[in-house]
Structure formats: C-alpha cells, structure tokens
Amino acid sequence: MSFTKFGDQISGKSFRVLDEIQLRINAGILFTFALFAMYNGIRLRNFEIIPYITGAMALNFTIGLFINPNYAPSMLLAKIFAFKRTPKYIGAIQKQFAWGLGLVLTSVIFTLSTFLTSDPTWFPHVCMLCLICNSLLAFETIFGVCAGCELYFFAIDIKLIKKPKPEDRPNCMGDSCEI
Hints:
By secondary structure, this protein is mainly α. Helix content is 60%, strand content 3%.
C-alpha cells in the first residue's frame, strides 16, 4: 500500500482498487453525520454545529484525496466495521473523481455555513447543498450506486476528461459498469 496514492495496487489487477464494502460503510458514516447536521439546522434551528461537521467532512475528503483514502478518519472507522469481511475490489479512479466532487461540495457547504452562524438568511442555500450531498451519500449507502462515479463516466462520454488506457478497465460498485 502506497502512502500517497489513491487506492491500493493488488496482484491480478492493472489498476488501483478500493474495497466496496468499506466504501459503503464510509458513505454511511458520513451520511449519519450529514443527517445530524441537517436535523440541527432544519428542526432545531441550531446552525453552530454545521460548520464543524462539514469542515470535518471536507478534511476527511482532503486526506483521502491528497494522502490516501485508507487514512481518512471515516475510512479508518469503516475498516473496523468491515473487519474480517472478504473485500470486494472496485476501481479507484472513478471513486477518486467522486471524492473530488465530495470535497468541492463539502468545502462550499463549509464556507457558506460559516456565514450561516451569524446570518440565518444563508440557510436555504446551505440546506439545498446539504440535500444534494445527503442524496449522493444515501444513494451510495442504501442502494450501492455511486452517483459521483456515474458523473465520472458521463464526463468521459462528453470528453470532458480523457478515457483511461484499455488495460485499466476498473469495475464499479456491484459490477454495474466497466469503462
């Protein structure tokens, strides 16, 4: 396992991989914290907790993207929950794109939520972004569908990003796709 690479190189695969089980548990952990933040904002009108949670999520994505997802705090916790389970490896390249999307989304929510603590009129904007973030996390946690991965393939189709080499054809969650 490389310290600064996204994903692990395993024998028999020409591309980097991540464990699907750990990723779904990770999404569930993040989803739980995001729901807690939304509940505090919508139901309790307590906006102070939102910057802390979104800041922690942004830090989690930053560690995962720029160091290694195996060292992101939520992934470390997911590894504990997935202990002794047989790994199901999926391609890391599309998950890297999805985590990048998560980093952008949580960073924007974090920035806007810092304004929210002093001015509640920012809440509709923050709430809408939180709903988008929670929807993406829910799809991955509950249904095993990585919307960020689907956006990755869409970006390839419209030639926004270049297609990986033919020998690097990673599979998606639940073997639902191949590049």
